[in-house]
Amino acid sequence: MPTIVHHQIINAPPPVCFDLARDVLTHTETTSQTNEVAVSGRTKGLMEVGEIVAWQGTHFGVRQHLTAKVTRMEKYHFFEDVMVKGAFQSFTHTHEFKETLDGGTVMTDVFEYQSPFGLLGRLADLLFLEKYMKKLLTIRANELKVKAERQR
C-alpha cells in the first residue's frame, strides 16, 4: 500500500490553512488541472466530520467520480478523509497543520492508498500512479500556499 507524504511550509497561521484545505471551493480552485468539481453531498463551504463529498474530475483523460467522507477532525490541527466510492480500492488522506515558530504553518499531507486490480494495480503504482498522485498533492499544496499567503 503506497504512502505519499508531502510537507508544505506556508507563511500563514494554521487556522487559515486548515479552513482553506477543507473548503470545497478552494479544493476546486487548487485542482483546476483535473477539472474537479463537487457534484453532491457538501458542494460548498467547509467540510465537517461525517460529511460526504462526491467529486467529479478528469484523470488520465477519463472523467471519474470519487466520493470521500471526513472521518476525523481536530480543528486547526488535522482532518482525515477516506474514500467511500471511487477508482481506488481504498484511500485515507490525512491533512495535518503545525504552527511554526514564526506563526506560519507546516502543512503535511499523508495519502495512503491501495490500487484496484491486485497485481496489475501494484504494477500501475510502480509505473505511473504513485508519481501522478505525488504531483497532484504537490500542485494542490502549492496552490493552497499561494491562497493562504494572500489572506495573511
What is the gist of this entry?
The protein has one domain: Alpha-D-Glucose-1,6-Bisphosphate, Chain A, domain 4, CATH 3.30.530. The chain is 32% helix and 41% strand.
Throw out a few tags for this protein:
Alpha-D-Glucose-1,6-Bisphosphate, Chain A, domain 4, 32% helix, 152 residues, alpha+beta, 7-stranded antiparallel sheet
If you had to describe this structure to a student in words, what would you say it looks like?
This protein has one domain (3-151): Alpha-D-Glucose-1,6-Bisphosphate, Chain A, domain 4, CATH 3.30.530. The relative contact order is 0.24. The protein is built from three helices and seven strands. Helix 1 (14-21) packs across helix 3 and helix 2 (24-30) packs across helix 3 (118-151). The chain is globular, with a radius of gyration of 15 Å. With 152 residues, it is of the alpha+beta class. The mean pLDDT is 96. Strands 1-7-6-5-4-3-2 form a seven-stranded antiparallel β-sheet, covered by helices on one side.
What's the arrangement of secondary structure elements?
Elements: E1 3-10, H1 14-21, H2 24-30, E2 37-41, E3 52-59, E4 62-74, E5 78-85, E6 90-99, E7 105-114, H3 118-151
Antiparallel strand pairs: 1-7, 2-3, 3-4, 4-5, 5-6, 6-7
Counting H and I runs of at least 4 residues, what is the number of helices? Answer: 3
> So, the CATH homologous superfamily?
START domain
Which structural class should the secondary elements be placed in? alpha+beta
Order of SSEs: EHHEEEEEEH
Helix content: 25-40%
CATH-defined fold name:
Alpha-D-Glucose-1,6-Bisphosphate, Chain A, domain 4
Q: How many domains, in number, for the residues?
A: 1
Distance between the termini: 37 Å
The assigned CATH architecture is 2-Layer Sandwich
Radius of gyration: 15 Å
